Structures are given as C-alpha cells and as structure tokens.
Amino acid sequence: MSTPPIRDRWGRVHQLLHWGIAAMILGLAAVGLWMTGMPNSMDKLQVYALHKSFGITVLALVLLRLGWRLAAGRPPALPGPAWQTRLASAMHGLLYLLMLAMPLSGWLYNSASNFPLRWFGVVTLPALSGPSPELKAIAGAVHEWGFWLLALLVAVHAGAALKHHLVDRDATLARMLPRALFPPPKDDAR
Amino acid sequence: MTASRPAAPARLAVPLLALAAWLIAGPAAAADYTAAGGSTLGFRGEAQGEPFDGRFQRFDARIRFDPAALGTARFEVEIPLESADSQNAERDDTMKGDDFFAVGAHPLARYEASAFRDLGGGRFAADGQLTLRGTTRPVVLEFTWTAGAQPVLEGQATLDRTAFGVGGGDWADPGTIAHEVRVSTRLVLAPATP
Question: Is the pLDDT of residue A39 over 70?
Fold first, then answer.
C-alpha cells in the first residue's frame, strides 16, 4: 500500500495546520520576548504590528483547525494505557485553550491599551474593549503568564512526541508527518 | 472728620497698588474671558492608518472677542503639553518624549492671535501664531461664536506636525504617522476676573 488508512494518520490539512501554527507560535514567542525591550522607534511599531498580525492569523488558523477536526474527524488514539490517553487528551485540550487565549488576550490587551488593530495593514479589526487600564493589566498578565504556561506545555508536548518516537517507537509523531518526509515506524505499516 | 482722613501717602497707596497690579498683570487684564469648566481642547492624529483622538487636560485660554470689534480681539492660549492624553499610555509617553513634544525642553505650547477675519455666516478666522517645541508658525483657527452670558467658541485648526519638528527622523514617515493633525476646541467662556 502506498498510503496508509486515513484513520491511522492525521490528514494533510490537519498536518499543515499543526505545523504551520507551531512555526508561527515559535516565531511569535521569539519576537514577543525580544520586542518588549526594543527602544521606542518606528521599527518597534512595525515589529509590534507584525506580532499582532501573526497572532490574529494563529487565532484564525486555530479556529479553522478546530472546525476541520470537528468536520473531518481525527484518527483514533493509538493503543496505550488509558491514563496516558486521558492525559494526552487533557494536554491537547489545554493546548487548544491556550492557542485561543494567547491571541485573544493579546487582542484585548491591544484594545484596552487603545491601539488600533489592522491585520497586516489590510483589514481593520474591531476593538474588544474601550480604553481601560484595569482590563489592560488583566489582559497583559493573562498574555504573559499564558505564554509561560504555553511554553511549558509545548515543551512537554514535544517531549512526549519524541519519547513516543524514540523510546516507545510508535507512530505518534510519524502520523503527524507526511509519509514521504518521514518513513513510518514498523507498527504503522500494518 | 478731617482728622481721621488718611495722610497723603496713604491716600495714594490704593491707586498706586492698582497701577502696580495692572502693570504686573499686563495684557492678562485685557482679556474679557477665560475658559470655564466644560471647555475642551482636543486633537486628532492618524497612526498606522487609524485615527486617534487626544485632548489636553489642562490649558489656559484668555479670550477677548466681540464680533462687532474684531480689531480689538485677542486670543492667548497656553497649553502644558504634559497634559496631553490620548488614553494610551505608550503613545502618550512617546508623544511627550524628545522625538515629539519634548516636554522636558518645551513644556508649554502657546497660541496667540490678534488678527481676525469675519468669514460670514457666523464664522470667523483667527490668523494666529502657534509656538510648539520652540518653533513658531502661523496657524489659522476657524471658529463660531455663540454670544451669551457664557459665550461659546467652537473652532478647528489643521496643522502639519513636521512644521514644528514634532516627530522627526524616522517618525516623519507620513505613512506611519500622518503629518496632518486636526485640533478642535470648544471653549465655554466665563468673564475674566480682573
């Protein structure tokens, strides 16, 4: 068989969304950590504008991904201990939650700070709130602490995927990758 | 009675003090009105393609105006730039910083007008001079005047921020921060206390 059964592997669309969102989140994290220390300048404005635009893009892609997952379904969980499956589900739920909370708290922080929001200078997005120092403080804290929590979860998520791949030698990681790019481990080619 | 009259020097004291007060107060005493509560002085700029509004929390306006006597009219407005507020802490800090208002070196902006035109239809124009960030340039304020016990002056002016060096260097890019700034004011005027 040249292609595995669909139920075994994440579909192309979902894979594309998974890795595209992952790449953007890494970029957003790196830029986000760096940009707050920039001296006040035109460059800083532009970098912030890009951070916001990519963040909104992630929000849209995560919603698309959740919609796609509901519509197209997901491959069944690989065999494993029940506690592990439940923990993985909880982990993925938290990751989705944070992938929504991060752009939304950033958007709210932007609105409460009374900055406009134009997606790549093309589409003007509405403000989620009026100017408000209180909301700004709350949204800013959620954005910052949410980031550290997300960083922790991503590290655990990636660590678990590598552990499955290298130690357990199962298809957990491989089925989120194109078959051509990554030869499946033995137990995926049943 | 005559015995209780003050001595000559004492009798002179009151008019002399009045004269001294007039000399010290100078032109201020010539103002008919000052801005009362409810007066506003705002501005609208545009950054990254979106307009934003700000206002000056404090300003001091001395207005002498009579639609029938434009020749004697005079506006004097002093604006502590530190009081600029666009409800955006980051933007306000930048605006007051050295690249824009430079409030440290130039804490006050000043608008003075003594030449006025009747534009008809209840509208007037003040051909005044605005001093901002150490630079003085002509700025025309067009306004309406509503007479009354507390006359109301409503006016607008448009100015180019770069003419005053507000936002030079990289900040001068009009695509990021528009050069044109619209100033609008609504003054509720109370008779000046001499």
Answer: yes
Q: A163: which 2 tokens?
A: 């552990």
* Domain definitions of chain A by residue range: 6-188
What residue type is assigned to position A44 of the chain?
K
Q: How far is it, in rounded angstroms, from Cα A18 to Cα B171?
A: 39
CB-based contacts of A148-156 (< 8 A; 24+ apart in sequence): A149/A98, A150/A25, A150/A95, A150/A98, A150/A99, A150/A102, A151/A29, A153/A91, A153/A94, A153/A95, A153/A98, A154/A25, A154/A95, A156/A91
Label the pairing between strands B60-64 and B152-160. Answer: unpaired
* 3-class SS of residue B93: helix
Start-to-end C-alpha separation, chain B: 33
Percent of chain A with pLDDT over 70: 91
**Segment (H or E) for B189:** strand B180-191
The ipTM is 0.77
Instruction: Give the architecture (CATH level 2) of A6-188.
Output: Up-down Bundle (1.20)
CATH code, B27-191: 2.40.128.110
Q: How far apart are CA A25 and CA A6, in angstroms?
A: 27
Higher pLDDT, B12 or B61: B61
- Do B186 and B152 contact (CB within 8 A), yes or no? yes
Mean pLDDT (whole number) for A70-91:
91
Digit-coded pLDDT (tens) for A6-27: 458 898 999 999 999 999 999 9
Q: What is the pLDDT of residues A84-94, one digit of tens each?
A: 999 999 999 99
- Residue contacts between A and B (CB atoms, under 8 Å): 39
| Structure tokens belonging to residue A182 | 């990554």
A43 contacts in B (CB within 8 Å)?
170
Say if the Cβ atoms of A121 and B86 lie within 8 Å: no
Q: Which two tokens stand for residue A67?
A: 């919609």
Interchain contact, B91 vs A121, CB within 8 Å = no
Please report, for chain B, the start and end positions of each structural domain, with discontinuous segments joined by +. 27-191
Helix (H) or strand (E) holding A154: helix A133-163
